[in-house]
Design goal:
The structure holds two protein chains of two kinds.
Chain A (H helix, E strand, L loop, with lengths): L1 H28 L7 H11 L3 H21 L4 H7 L3 H11 L7 H19 L3
Chain B lengths: L2 H34 L7 H12 L2 H21 L4 H7 L3 H11 L7 H18 L9
Classes of the chains: A mainly alpha, B mainly alpha.
């Protein structure tokens, strides 16, 4: 139980912080308008030169390793919906860390997502 | 097509790709980790053996490959759309994972959990009706 709780925390918090760092890195390089393979590779290469990219990769990797651990002890129909709590952490981070304007409607949607996550956790078989 | 319509269309296409490949990757990961067995503990030796077994599993690597495809689509969409829009909008994959877990992995999914998944999707619908980008370029 403690192992699962620690793994859950590591999936949700560092994993989501990593994604926010990645978002900041991608916003730094600007909007992608060319989707040809060599242009996508060039975009990824530019992203790799942004420090936020590597901070994000490190945090996301720790989240991924924790996910593998969690998947070895819990069902997929529990793990993936339960990790949707990261939507709340991510929206909060989007507002505080990335300066995004989160509208009341978006907050309301995130609140519904969180109630859904709670039901998923309560319905653990 | 206006630039706003174009923005919505390319965002929608990439989100459809994301919510298709990510759940498949998740299911392969779960299948692979089920074969590896439960994580034995937190000692370095135990962790090393556990992750060595995980990363020598072909099923786990198929899952990782699918998640990498998701990751590329995710990175591209994040170059123009808000993180707080993309993250909840892509959560429709929660329903796809639950369906695949039920019908491919034959997991028992209780009604309360289906209700939770339905609520998550409703939340996604509400978020999906907001503007994809709220910050200046």
């Amino acid at each position: 139980m403690l192992t699962a709780a620690i793994l859950y925390f590591l999936i949700v918090v560092p994993g989501t912080c990593g994604e926010m760092c990645m978002s900041r890195a991608m916003k730094t390089i600007g909007e992608v308008t060319d989707f040809r393979p060599h242009a996508i590779v060039r975009t990824m290469w530019r992203a790799m030169k942004v420090p936020w990219f590597w901070i994000g990769i490190t945090l996301m990797a720790s989240g991924f390793f924790s996910l593998l651990g969690m998947l070895s002890v819990a069902k997929a129909s529990f793990v993936f919906p339960a990790t949707a709590l990261s939507y709340a952490v991510g929206t909060l981070g989007g507002k505080l860390f990335l300066g995004e304007r989160v509208t009341p409607q978006r907050w309301f949607g995130v609140l519904i997502v969180c109630i859904g996550v709670l039901l998923v956790a309560l319905g653990k078989g | 097509m206006t630039s706003s319509q174009g923005l919505h269309l390319k965002t929608a296409v990439l989100i459809v790709i994301m919510v298709s490949v990510a759940p498949l990757g998740d299911i392969f990961l779960r299948k692979g980790m089920e074969q590896v067995g439960a994580m034995p503990g937190w000692m370095p030796g135990e962790l090393f053996r556990f992750f060595f077994a995980a990363f020598t599993s072909g099923t786990v690597w198929i899952g990782i490959g699918l998640l990498l495809a998701f990751f590329v689509a995710y990175m591209l969409v994040l170059s123009w759309a808000d993180y707080s829009y993309v993250l909840p909008a892509s959560s429709i994959s929660t329903l796809v994972v639950a369906l695949l877990a039920r019908f491919v992995l034959h997991e028992t999914v209780r009604p309360l959990r289906w209700a939770g998944v339905a609520l998550i999707c409703m939340g996604v619908f509400v978020v999906g009706r907001t503007q994809p980008r709220t910050t200046e370029r």
